[in-house]
Write a structure and sequence with these properties.
Layout lengths: L1 H40 L5 E10 L7 E2 L2 E2 L2 E7 L3 E9 L10 H18 L7 H13 L7 E11 L4 E7 L3 E6 L2 E5 L4 E3 L2 E2 L2 E3 L15 E6 L5 E5 L1 H4 L4 H6 L11 H19 L7 H8 L12 E10 L8
Antiparallel strand pairs: 1-15, 2-3, 3-4, 4-5, 5-6, 6-7, 6-12, 7-13, 8-9, 8-14, 10-11, 14-15
Helix pairs in contact: 2-3
């Protein structure tokens, strides 16, 4: 009888353990099914650009507006199909002819922004965008005189790639971690004379290149990539490694607008300080010496920096 009772108790305990294990297995199955369902419902990575800008005008501290620093101008466009950023640097030599070069750059970037916003086709070619914006300026009844360099970057959200057109010595770089995966090359006719778009009314001695002369490229992008777009005021005064070092405090996978703005401000301020250092062997000074010129120091110029992070559209939107 004692054995019978003990045996029944053992069977009861085993049954209880089996029931507990069954419930645990069921709960685990529900958990993994729910997790799989949530992962299945999660949207695939769709990139967008979270942008911040900063700059310093060459001479007049008040010569700053919502989309310009001195003779530099820029634009930012964000929609469901693409992100588009652009920058232009006016040729200051036009002041010798009583022409304000900032009007030319602002007009060109305004046209680019308007076209980028209104284009609904799946593909927007950066060279085509620059061409249409430039033609609109040429067809004005009273065309604006002036010249500028230009750089346009278009990020396709479906293809997860950026296409770019760079004319002259403004440019951009793509930084992944602490590695520069791409940097545009400047285009020069000769030292300190970059390729440029111009409207001159047949004025002699004015260089007039075409949008189709721009250097073009297409690059695949990843979440966390940083795009640094700037006028030559940055690249003439800071080396590639100096720029990359100032990006390291940005959280690549959860960047905030504030962190991007602080980094852009830091780049612009450091470039300005180096431009005023007469003993600094700047990138510009090294190029000058390559051409046989006895030059040392930075290059004082308008400085504009657009800093963009590739983030996921589904992570929520921050201010740009």
């Amino acid at each position: 009888q004692h054995y019978y009772i003990t045996n029944n108790l053992s069977k009861t305990c085993r049954c209880s353990r089996l029931k507990c294990r069954g419930r645990a297995t069921l709960m685990q199955s529900i958990f993994y099914f729910g997790r799989s369902l949530l992962l299945g419902l999660r949207q695939p990575f769709k990139p967008r650009l979270l942008c911040a800008c900063s700059g310093v005008p060459r001479t007049h501290p008040c010569n700053v507006g919502p989309a310009h620093f001195g003779d530099d101008a820029f634009f930012i466009v964000e929609n469901d199909k693409r992100s588009v950023i652009g920058i232009a640097d006016g040729v200051g030599g036009w002041r010798r002819y009583d022409v304000d070069p900032s009007k030319f750059t602002r007009s060109l970037m305004n046209n680019c922004e308007r076209i980028a916003r209104s284009t609904t086709t799946d593909i927007l070619n950066p060279v085509g965008l620059l061409q249409r914006a430039y033609e609109q300026m040429m067809h004005l009844k009273s065309p604006l005189l002036g010249s500028c360099t230009a750089c346009i970057v278009v990020m396709d959200k479906e293809k997860k790639e950026v296409s770019a057109a760079n004319l002259g010595d403004s440019g951009f770089m793509v930084v992944r971690g602490d590695v520069v995966v791409y940097q545009s090359q400047e285009q020069q006719h000769y030292f300190n004379t970059p390729y440029q778009l111009s409207i001159s009314n047949d004025r002699l001695g004015v260089i007039q290149d075409r949008p189709s002369d721009a250097d073009t490229t297409t690059i695949s992008i990843q979440k966390g990539d940083l795009i640094v777009m700037a006028t030559d005021g940055l690249f003439d005064n800071m080396f590639q490694q100096q720029i990359v070092e100032r990006l390291q405090r940005i959280d690549r996978y959860a960047p905030s607008y504030d962190s991007l703005k602080q980094a852009a401000d830091k780049l612009a301020a450091d470039a300005r300080n180096l431009a005023m250092d007469e003993d600094y062997m700047s990138p510009f000074a090294m190029k000058a010496q390559h051409y046989g010129l006895n030059f040392r120091g930075g290059k004082l110029d308008d400085i504009t920096v657009l800093l963009a992070s590739v983030v996921d559209c589904w992570d929520g939107k921050d201010d740009t």
